[in-house]
Amino acid sequence: SRKLIVATAQLGPIARDEPRSSTVSRMVALMTEAHRRGATLVVFPELALTSFFPRWFIEDEAELDSFYETEMPGTETQPLFDAARKLGVGFYLGYAELIVEGETKRRFNTTILVDQTGEIVGKYRKVHLPGHYNFEEWRPFQHLEKRYFEHGDLGFPVFETMGGTMGMAICNDRRWPETYRVLSLRGAELIMIGYNTPVHYPQAPEHDHLQDFHNHLSLQAGAYANGAWVIGTAKAGREGGCDLIGGSCIVAPTGEIVAMVQGLGDEIATAEIDLDRCKELRENVFNFTLHREPGDYGPICAG
Ligand code: CDT
Asked: Which UniProt keywords apply (predicted)?
């Protein structure tokens, strides 16, 4: 068996003007508690360092830029890397990434994987960007990911690190079966996914009461149909006047939730996971080599 203890590290709301130093302190506290419970890998949410700013139409470029990281680690995020090294705890960290190429600014919704020595060992940029590009007055809040981020240009890579094959995805990616399938075809045994999900879905408010169900449905189906461990981590609670779901959890390759947080604030849930349990599915019902029929899946890849 290949066992490790992992943690989902849910964050409660982050205020629009909350300094990075405060958020990073909250995250170090969660990492420290995870370590106390024996965890060696912690999964933080999507855009974990700031409020979920795509809910606001921000016209001032300097203000918009203030939500992005231009270096990683930077001065304000260095304590996370120091804590990782000191405690021997790796982590997944979602953040807004700003890079400057010549005169051009490029923006991505990004996550990195940091190992137990505090080194960055993986990076992923969000592929499925939900929402819209322009300000839409009818909405109670905006969802401007298509305005504030470019489509991720790294595909769905996996990383051999921390004793297994690791994959990452970000929020809306978890609703798309292709995300898990591409990562799993590349051998992912553990797929980490941070999210910010409003309870209210303005285009179909009749689905509001289903948000927690759809979250777990996606995470559990993705785990089971690919025989992979999945960790989903929320930014939760009432943030900037918008209610975000919680439900951060650890899902076994069988699709069962084996650990889950209880509330909507800063909280961790931990589980001992055995990466070898992926074989229960991948050597049986989801043995890709024996049973997949890619010759019949053509439309999936058609534009
Ligand atoms: N952050 C993110 O991707 N959130 C979406 C909200 C619903 S689509 C507007 C999600 O899939 O949870």
From this structure: Hydrolase
